[in-house]
Amino acid sequence: MLTLDLSNEPRWHELAPGVRVQLRPLTTALMVATRGDPAVEAVPEGASDEERAVAFAKALARRAVLEWDGIGDAYGNPIEPSPEAIDALLDIWPIFEKFQLAYVSKGLLLEQEKNASALSPNGPSAGASDTARDAKGRARTARRA
Q1: What is the pTM of this model?
Q2: What's the pLDDT tens digit per position in 84-113?
Q3: Closest among 17, 14, 13, 43 to 25, alpha carbons compared
């Protein structure tokens, strides 16, 4: 069953111990805007799936991150989210993985489900018919031994 969260409120996500980000809800508008992001569109045609995933995740995070806690500069001073800081955060492998699992994959899960083929009602050949066409295109029933 698909459950709808009608609140549409930003949520906090913990990406590492002591590191959390407040993210906008993952909406259709946000996904569409991210797909059209110049950084995503600039990914070369021959790029690997991994390169595309990184570009997409960074573009999405730049749109989605509202606030964060537990992130600072080289001197330990807290910093505010900025496009450069968000990209640097996602360059940290465990953070990237957690962002993908906690946020991005939830949006892509439904997209994967809609692309799957429905199962046949009672086995792989349940929907198949026993008819074939002869050379003139007329339907004929196959004989069973």
Answers
A1: 0.71
A2: 999 999 999 999 999 999 998 876 655 544
A3: 13
- What is the spatial distance between Cα 33 and Cα 20, in angstroms, rounded to a whole number? 24
Question: 20, 70 in Cβ contact below 8 A?
Answer: yes
Q: Which two tokens stand for residue 79?
A: 């910093």
Helix (H) or strand (E) holding 102: none
User: Of all residues in the chain, what percent are helix, strand and coil, respectively (each to 5)?
Assistant: 40, 15, 45
Tell me which residue of 110, 112, 137 sits closest to 3, measured CA to CA.
110
Sheet holding 19-23, edge to edge: 11-16, 19-23, 65-69
Cα 5 from chain centre: 18
Q: Which amino acid would we find at residue 76? A: G
